[in-house]
Specification:
The protein contains 15 helices and 23 strands. It is of the alpha/beta class.
Amino acid sequence: MKKITKTASAFVMAGAIALTAAAPAVGTEPSTTAYALDDTNDDWLHAEGSRLYDMNGNEVWLTGANWFGFNCTESSPHYIWSGDIDDLVRDIADHGVNVLRLPVSTELLYNWMIGDPDPIKSIKPNNSPSYPFNIDLINPDGSIANSQQLFDVLLKKCKQYGIKAFIDIHSPESNNAGHNYGLWYGKSFKGRDGKTVEVTTDVWIETLAWCADYYKNDDTLIGFDLKNEPHSTYGGAPVDAIWDNSNKPNNWKQAAQDCADAILEKNPNALILIEGVEGFEGHGAWWGGNLRGVRKYPVIPESGTSQIVYSPHDYGPVVSEQTWFKKNFTTDTLLDDYWRDTWAYLVEEDIAPLLIGEWGGRIPDTVDDEKLLTCDATTLTEFEQNARWLGLIRDYMIKHHINHTFWCLNDDSGDTGGLWKNIIFSTKQDADGNITGYTDIQWDQLKYDTYYYPTIWKTLDSKKFIGLDHQTPLGKNGISLNDFYANYASTEGSNIDGGKTGNGTIIEVSSSAATDPVTEPDTDKPTDTTQGKAAKYGDANNDGAVDMSDVVMVMQACLNPQKYGVEGSSDDRMTPDGEKNADVDGKSGVTPNDALVIQKFTLSLVDSLPIK
């Protein structure tokens, strides 16, 4: 912000893979009821037009919040010192947050990469039998978790409660005000070995590629926001971040494309979130908010654009007054004066998905939406104007199915506040005198109820929060993605697109599906496939049929090439002929998009393979 795998089971979900998805375990097991984690690694997402879809081709909506602190000198999410991590993450899920944007620094990732993570500060866990506090952050040897171990515990908790996450490079160095610096390179920090490390573009890319590789088998971490708010020399950068087709070192478009290539080489399933700049061809915007350049110079990785999500930030007048607020502003005036040409065109013209990475702000003590919309905005107080803007962007995001992460959960953000008002670890005593500990999490109920809750993805009538995990429900009032598409999508639907959405398809396939064999032609390339006719294109597992087991084979090979790729170690690995058969999406090389095309073919959504 400005200022501060064929499986051994009889049935598997499409794309499900028998992999160990969890990062290395740290600390003691949680004191809560035992749970089974979804480790099938099948929750990756991809883009088609301006929407995001799961591996089954079903539409999803990312409706989350920011939780900053890993980017700061504390090297931990703020308020971990006041609340138990299990209580906090569980409560976040219970409030319908289906994805967390977690700001970090390049310095933090660098220290993880070299195997010397920063210690976490201001956190004092205890394992008192009466009221244990953050015992998940106490290692078996009694030491306190370091920053990466804390991150791994957080991912484990997110997995437990059905939340997904992505990281955001908020600053080059760990710095509580590091967001003021506008570039992804040009800062330095003192390494844990005492040596000075300069953050260059190469270092920035290397740390993100390392992180993508390290967590590639954990679909809890679904993506990477490459740089928070690239902007001008305000904050100390030597030059402005620009967006064009040049080879200048400060060309954010080219840097983002190079970084996306490096990440997708390690994990082709990760979402790549790319923010805008501040100025483009004489047009100004919020820091990170200007995506005008995408129309002329889109980011196109070598593997295509299926993983690209553009992520502007947008704020109201409390954060900083802008020209588009100096009138009786409405949705139409905001679109005409700023939103449409700056970022909204990407969704309105179905070009690419958007995720508003930051939106939020302070509001008055009481809110009357009708009054705020009917009064002339120029007669309102600054906080009332901000509330009016919040209501307008809230409704626009819902109407146009724009993904978003609210800024923020923790309330120590100077010019916006947060969704939390206070967090206190407390104790209570039952009738028998037993003392237990709990985290008292006080939400800003007015802000949550009025502006955030309406934008959370939920079923239309029963108001069940919809998670992004195929199997694990989102908190106590939530459902899993499979549950939604099996039991709700074709009936009540959800609050996107005004109700019913999706076809309710949950695809289960037998890993041992068998059909009549097909005689292989003596050719180096597979023959064309037409629905209902014997064919070779799409037959990734060489069993003579084109069915969902081929989808599973392609996903196995893409997500775990060391085991299931052509040169993998498994007896069930893809063969060279299978690799040729699997390349069906009209682009060279086998990717998860080929799996999606084969799946569409099996559902009669595609008439023939390969796609021309």
